[in-house]
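Chain A, query sequence.
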Amino acid sequence: MTEPPNYGRPTGFGDLSPFTLERTEYIGVSRTPVCCLPVTLGGKLLGFLWGSISVDEDAAGFRPVHGAGAVGFDAGGPWRGRLKRARDKGVAPADAVRRWIGEPEDPRAGGVPADAVERMLPDSDAVLTLAAQSPRWATPDSRPGG
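Chain A, predicted structure.
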């Protein structure tokens, strides 16, 4: 029997087989219901923080509103870090999101107001739709009060 050509693919991985990478963050997409909270910066809606409420899905994230530009992009970094630290501690996604209600506003990431109304949405795609339909951020690169 003739062996098939190798085409440069390694055939023996030794100690690395099977090789997997451990996921250290919540998944960024949910196909199950999510809780969703508004994030404001300087009194203006900046985006939405969301987390899966299903015990079978480990998903959470931040989505800036349409037109938030660099301000919305910049806000994503601190939120990803906060969510990563929560996941590292074993916090459920919805609890990781709710824990920020009423906390002081971060000058870069904004905050979830104490009187925020939580929405239940069917999945993370609904968060994208909500962000796209929300009032547009005034100018892409302006910060409130600046």
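Helices lie at 69-88, 93-98, 124-133. Residues 69-88 form the longest helix (20 residues).
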